[in-house]
Design brief:
Pfam families: CAP. InterPro entries: CAP_dom, CAP_sf. It comes from Galbibacter marinus. This is SCP-like extracellular protein. The protein has 163 residues and is α+β, with helices and mostly antiparallel strands. The protein has a single domain, classed as CAP (Pathogenesis-related Protein p14a). It has six helices and four strands; from the N terminus they run ααβααβααββ. A four-stranded mixed β-sheet has the order 1-3-4-2, sandwiched between helices. A hairpin with a 5-residue loop joins strand 3 and strand 4. Helix 1 packs across helix 3.
């Protein structure tokens, strides 16, 4: 399956998830659902582990992986790849979606591009004051997406959430 086919497939999956997460009954009481079933690829698992190892070394709590956050991060990667840019476009929508879907009260995001290893992107984020602030922030969960474009270059989105 080529990169464009993967993007189209993920777009359908994410659109379906988005619709399911946003369909509400006005008479229903809002229930916060925690989804810890995250199906990371190896690169994403390595990034998650390295961020948690760093946080633990700083005396901070490890962050729980949450499926909805990872799916939201993956959706943003699809946007960045489709537009050929690294950006935070639509962050407000992602923040709102995670507030509704998880009860998130604080959301932050790191993005990256071009690194070929988990260590490379994590070290770059730690060396950047703003990205490091997010990694060390008062959060309890996160989701990571590492997606390759058709040239094999990685785009990264790491979303942090406090519920």
């Amino acid at each position: 399956m080529n990169a464009i086919s993967k993007i189209k497939t993920w777009s359908v999956v994410l659109f379906t998830c988005f619709c399911l997460c946003n369909c509400t009954n006005e008479n229903a009481t809002e229930e916060v659902i925690y989804d810890s079933s995250v199906d990371y690829i190896q690169m994403e698992t390595q990034i998650h582990d390295q961020i948690n190892q760093y946080r633990l070394s700083q005396g901070l709590e490890a962050l729980e992986p949450v499926g909805l956050i990872a799916t939201t991060a993956s959706s943003h990667n699809i946007h960045m790849i489709a537009n050929g840019e690294v950006c935070h476009h639509g962050f407000g929508s992602r923040e709102k979606q995670l507030g509704t879907g998880l009860g998130a009260i604080v959301v932050a995001e790191n993005v990256g591009y071009g690194f070929q290893t988990a260590q490379g992107v994590v070290q770059a984020w730690i060396k950047s004051e703003e990205h490091k602030k997010n990694i060390e922030g008062d959060f309890d969960s996160m989701g990571i997406a590492a997606s390759q474009n058709e040239d094999g270059l990685y785009y990264f989105t790491n979303i942090f959430v406090k519920r």
